UniProtKB/TrEMBL annotation:
This is Formate dehydrogenase major subunit. Its cofactor is [4Fe-4S] cluster. One of its GO terms (biological process) is anaerobic respiration. It comes from the Bacteria. InterPro entries: Mopterin_OxRdtase_4Fe-4S_dom (IPR006963).
Amino acid sequence: MSGRGWLARWPVIRQLRGEDGRSEAARSARTDALRPRTEDATTVARSICPYCAVGCGQLVYVEDGKVTQIEGDPDSPISRGRLCPKGSASKQLVTHPGRRTEVLHRRPYGTGWERLDLDTAMEMIADRVVRTRRETWEQTREGRVVRRTMGIASLGGATLDDEENYLMKKLYTALGAIQVENQARI
């Protein structure tokens, strides 16, 4: 018998193809009522999984501005539509009710933590980056044009994906930082 001949004769395959009288026994009203989670999506965005540096392609389905499903991208030359368990669960990064929407902050010389919303925390960070760049900017050094700041540095992690590392490098270069490293190279 050929290697695939037995598969075509397998009862479940025959039932699903409708090739035997028991095909309706393999179906139910509940099964017939099921619809794909992607059916009502208004847009589909191509992205890359955020969990590791492999860069598996993802299709992000969005309905009314909310992520409804994330699946592997079959056109991705890296993952060919497959995702690991972490990548398959990445929808929870943006939709899980337990997702953090605030940060803990301890003020200088403070003894306790206070909760801040993300917008406030981002404004505080942006203010500090701008102030540090302004205070530590060097236009020239020993008569040479350097246009840099030694007050800002970055040490990235290997858990960041290609998109994140690319954007971080662009940001730090635009700020004039020259101390940009990644732990994967150290």
